[in-house]
Amino acid sequence: MRTPEKNTLLIKQKARTLGFDHCGIAKAEQLTEDAYRLEQWLQQGMHGNMQYMENYFDKRIDPRLLVDGAQSVITLLLNYYPVQEQQPEAPKLAKYAYGRDYHDVIREKLNTLLADLRVEIGDIQGRGFVDSAPVLERSWAQRSGLGWIGKNGNLIHKQAGSFFFIATLIVDIPLVYDGPAADYCGSCTRCLDACPTGALVSPTVVDGSRCISYYTIELKDMLIPASMQGKFENWMFGCDICQDVCPWNRFSKPNTEFAPIPEVLNFTTSQWEEMTEEEFKRIFAKSPLKRSKYAGIRRNLKFLGRPE
């Protein structure tokens, strides 16, 4: 007979087999405190023009509205810290964008995990999510003991840092739940001090509308505000400053699953500038960079002070 204990052990074993680095589980329930913080964040306009953040508020704070009969929220971490880094003088890309689009990689793993569980356990109802649905991934990760929310707003794992993708699998079976993780940021303010645009307005509170990642990825306008001129520190797509300065990331270990696209590592500034749209579509067809599209990359390059 299957028990919550046996099923929990099975899930964590399967997660490791599929390549996930860490797995934690929490009871599916409404996130009351998170609901208040999210509401305040939205009311203050810190989401900028990311209007989708206003949608499905009730579902964001209660996983039981996403899966009928949901009882458990499984959170999985997948390390993406790269083996190699870019050329130092080239326009910078956030490390998560060095290789293949993580949505494709993780979605496949989640589908496999759920299918395997149905074979072993039986008729499980569940849904997997990776950055594509109204789920507060970091909150669930913290609740399931995988880390704490750092002052930079990222999930930090005590033994492995913060360079992780977070995936969520919501299921309708009871499991053994992990306890929440403690906060180990202490008095450190390195991330707050290092942010060049002042996006980290206070510990754990990120003004998304002032973040370099927001301007270089999420903002769809073809003009970046002139007030941000000179503050991007050569970041063309995303930004890792608040993670790079975090002391806990000294524990980050390279992951080979997201092998960098050669052009990401080797393109010089002039090669980025001279790249045609056809080349962009061919080289980055399976890359997160396609989210900004060719026009967005051109805009970002121009804003960094390079003529078209």
UniProtKB/TrEMBL annotation:
Reactions performed catalytically: epoxyqueuosine(34) in tRNA + AH2 = queuosine(34) in tRNA + A + H2O
Protein name: Epoxyqueuosine reductase
InterPro entries cross-referenced by the UniProt entry: 4Fe4S_Fe-S-bd, 4Fe4S_Fe_S_CS, QueG, QueG_DUF1730
Residues of the 4Fe-4S ferredoxin-type domain: 173-205
Subunit structure and binding partners: Monomer.
Cofactor binding note: Binds 2 [4Fe-4S] clusters per monomer.
UniProt: cob(II)alamin binding residues: R60, D131, N152, L155, I166, S213, C239, D240
Principal localisation: cytoplasm
Subcellular location: Cytoplasm
Upper taxonomic lineage: Bacteria, Pseudomonadati, Bacteroidota, Chitinophagia, Chitinophagales
One GO term (biological process): tRNA queuosine(34) biosynthetic process
Enzyme kind, highest EC tier: oxidoreductase
Family per record: Belongs to the QueG family.
GO CC field: cytoplasm
Pathway involvement of the protein, from the record: tRNA modification; tRNA-queuosine biosynthesis
GO MF annotations, alphabetized: 4 iron, 4 sulfur cluster binding; cobalamin binding; epoxyqueuosine reductase activity; metal ion binding
Cofactor requirements of the protein: [4Fe-4S] cluster; cob(II)alamin
Organism: Chitinophaga barathri
PROSITE patterns found in the cross-reference section: 4FE4S_FER_1 (PS00198), 4FE4S_FER_2 (PS51379)
Task performed by this protein: Catalyzes the conversion of epoxyqueuosine (oQ) to queuosine (Q), which is a hypermodified base found in the wobble positions of tRNA(Asp), tRNA(Asn), tRNA(His) and tRNA(Tyr).
EC number: 1.17.99.6
Cytoplasm listed as a keyword: yes
SUPFAM superfamilies linked: alpha-helical ferredoxin
